[in-house]
């Protein structure tokens, strides 16, 4: 890996290394998710052989990965299995148990360097069991890193012997897997750059407060505006570009060094239409959006009048939807994680990627992941990687979820950047766009420069203008007030996590 390909966070680690150490390395340091996981898989193969073939393991268990008999494509309301409140509580319990196991793992990792050899070995062995390295366990953190199906007693003895013969490499392997569970771990992803990630969970979720008939990124949703679809999407992307430019001007963003700034995710979470579809690793966040409505500038639990009849909310009925039910989507996280080691390209389309900690709190509060979509025809209702469920809305359910999420305080933090939603609202309603944003969009869409005037005229004929330079969507005084109260130091103080760096480096000599 050439040093010029490193992210700023990787370069900071590289710069901190002694020069004599750098000379023994091939390339630089990386947090690359694919390289880290591929290294873990190679280490696993040293102990478990072909049973650590992740591609084979994931293919072998395809039915389980997709939820078995779960609904993978929504044809009508009747085709979607209905959950009970007890089913949902079971989901919650599973995630709480998963969190307890990861917390225990982190506590055990602290004992790996204990002076007492017996204590140290016991910690490594217990951690290996929690991770799924000691035998089949339906509650293990990992279910597919080792295929235990049909393992003979002789094979098990061979695995045990390899571990006993190489305790230090096995301890290193266990430690690397535990690192995947650490809150704040810096991981580099294709396109995104380095992400300061949050603790992992078992599943990805999405919650919607009705059966809408489809689920698409906001950029691709059709609205009756009298503007052609292609031009409406172009306007939304211009607003996204200008929203990103506004964010970049804030001091908290300029002073953010813990990871790459995900402009699309921030704009999405603060009200702009983007090509990203939100998912979360927090079942409560999904339930909140399934059981709540945004009205009059604040969130409230759904009421009986919202879901009593199929057409209780007329705008949903107009789409052919059903207001009586919420929709819940769920996808196992582990196959997505292991898949990074198997990818041969940098395409992240329609794959849940972590948003992680950002200089604004809303993304982390919602344990946000995003699926970036280029295909205007994409529909989560037809995405077979997610299982789909419905749940009958009741006031008791909605009040319970709303209360448990502290009336939205867990999802929309109070100590967030002041006024950013209002600033984004101004961008979201504008008809005047900055020249740099327009030119960037033209390049992104591959439109030849000779056609730019035609594209600008097309916008003008529908009431949209391109300024000669930048556009100030809010006053300089508003920006100054945000910068004065929401400083980089303030952000670091309320973040609730610190960045953790464990890079991979390649040594020049052969062998281990």
Structural class: alpha+beta
Q: Given the structure, what is the number of helices?
A: 23
Query: What's the N-to-C terminus distance?
Result: 18 Å
What is the helical fraction, as a range of percent?
Answer: 40-55%
Mean pLDDT: 92
Structure description:
- This protein has a domain at about 1-30.
- About 45% of the residues lie in helices and about 10% in strands.
- It has 23 helices and 15 strands.
- The two termini are about 20 Å apart.
Compact summary:
By secondary structure, the chain is α+β, with helices and mostly antiparallel strands.
Topology:
Blueprint: H1 8-16, H2 19-22, E1 25-30, H3 33-48, H4 54-60, H5 62-65, E2 82-83, H6 85-109, H7 117-131, H8 153-165, H9 167-179, E3 186-189, E4 193-196, E5 203-208, H10 229-248, H11 251-254, H12 263-269, E6 276-280, H13 283-291, E7 292-295, E8 298-301, H14 304-307, H15 314-317, E9 325-332, H16 334-342, E10 353-354, H17 362-365, E11 368-372, E12 387-392, H18 395-404, H19 420-428, E13 432-433, H20 435-444, H21 452-461, E14 465-466, H22 476-485, H23 488-494, E15 504-507
Parallel strand pairs: 2-12, 13-14
Antiparallel strand pairs: 1-15, 3-4, 5-9, 6-11, 7-8, 9-12, 10-11
Helix pairs in contact: 3-9, 3-16, 6-7, 7-9, 10-12, 10-20, 13-18
């Amino acid at each position: 890996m050439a040093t010029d390909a490193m992210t700023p966070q990787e370069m900071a680690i590289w710069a901190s290394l002694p020069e004599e150490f750098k000379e023994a390395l091939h390339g630089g340091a990386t947090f690359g998710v694919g390289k880290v996981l591929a290294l873990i898989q190679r280490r696993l193969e040293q102990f478990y052989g072909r049973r650590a073939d992740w591609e084979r393991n994931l293919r072998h268990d395809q039915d389980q990965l997709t939820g078995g008999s779960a609904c993978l494509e929504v044809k009508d309301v009747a085709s979607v299995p209905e959950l009970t409140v007890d089913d949902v509580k079971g989901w919650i319990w599973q995630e709480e148990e998963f969190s307890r196991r990861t917390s225990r793992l982190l506590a055990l990792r602290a004992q790996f360097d204990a002076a007492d050899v017996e204590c140290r070995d016991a910690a490594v062995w217990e951690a290996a069991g929690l991770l799924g390295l000691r035998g089949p366990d339906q509650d293990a953190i990992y279910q597919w890193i080792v295929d235990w199906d049909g393992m003979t007693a002789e094979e098990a003895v061979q695995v045990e012997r390899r571990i006993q013969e190489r305790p230090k490499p096995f301890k290193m392997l266990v430690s690397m897997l535990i690192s995947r569970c650490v809150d704040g771990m810096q991981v580099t992803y294709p396109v995104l750059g380095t992400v300061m990630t949050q603790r992992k969970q078992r599943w990805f979720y999405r919650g919607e407060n009705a059966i809408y008939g489809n689920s698409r990124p906001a950029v691709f949703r059709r609205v009756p505006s009298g503007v052609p679809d292609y031009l409406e999407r172009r306007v939304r992307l211009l607003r996204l570009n200008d929203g990103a430019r506004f964010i970049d001007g804030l001091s908290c963003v300029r002073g953010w060094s813990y990871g790459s700034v995900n402009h699309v995710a921030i704009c999405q979470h603060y009200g702009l239409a983007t090509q990203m579809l939100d998912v979360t690793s927090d079942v409560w966040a999904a339930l909140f959006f399934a059981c709540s409505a945004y009205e009059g500038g604040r969130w409230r639990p759904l009421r009986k009048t919202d879901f009593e009849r199929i057409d209780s909310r007329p705008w949903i009925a107009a789409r052919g939807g059903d207001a009586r039910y919420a929709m819940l989507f769920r996808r196992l996280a582990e196959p997505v994680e292991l898949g990074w080691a198997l990818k041969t390209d940098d395409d992240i389309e329609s794959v849940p990627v972590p948003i992680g900690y950002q200089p604004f709190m809303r993304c982390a509060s919602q344990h946000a992941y995003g699926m970036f979509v280029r295909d205007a025809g994409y529909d989560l209702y037809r995405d077979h990687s997610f299982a789909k469920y419905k749940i009958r809305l009741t006031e008791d359910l909605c009040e319970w979820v709303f209360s448990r999420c502290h009336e939205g305080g867990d999802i929309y933090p109070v100590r967030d950047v002041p006024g950013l939603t209002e600033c984004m609202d101004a961008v979201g309603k504008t008809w005047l766009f900055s020249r740099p944003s327009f030119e960037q969009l033209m390049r992104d869409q591959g439109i030849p420069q000779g056609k730019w005037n035609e594209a600008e005229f097309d916008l003008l004929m529908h009431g949209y203008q391109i300024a000669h330079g930048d556009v100030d969507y809010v006053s300089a005084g508003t920006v100054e007030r945000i910068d004065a109260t929401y400083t980089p130091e303030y952000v670091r103080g309320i973040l609730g996590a610190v960045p953790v760096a464990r890079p991979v480096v390649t040594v020049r000599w052969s062998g281990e």
